[in-house]
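Researcher: Please predict.
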Amino acid sequence: MPIDQVSILRMCGGCRHEIETISVKKDNMRLFVDDKVWCEHCQSDQPEIRDIAGRLDTIRTEQRNYPVSPTSGPPVLSTDDEA
């Protein structure tokens, strides 16, 4: 049976604080929105950012499994790359 539900993280565009996680059908999934969302940390309406839940963890796991070149170290996903 195919997976037809996706978990989406709703985050503040200013501080990237996670507001909530929602589950939607793949057919109705929207990652790019122009909506504003109230952020408890910023205490203001901020642009909303959406991302698929677990995506960054999957990227980090995959990068740890890359072969290491003898002339360089392993690839690293820094906190700046999370945007």
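Model: The first strand starts at residue 5 and ends at 12.
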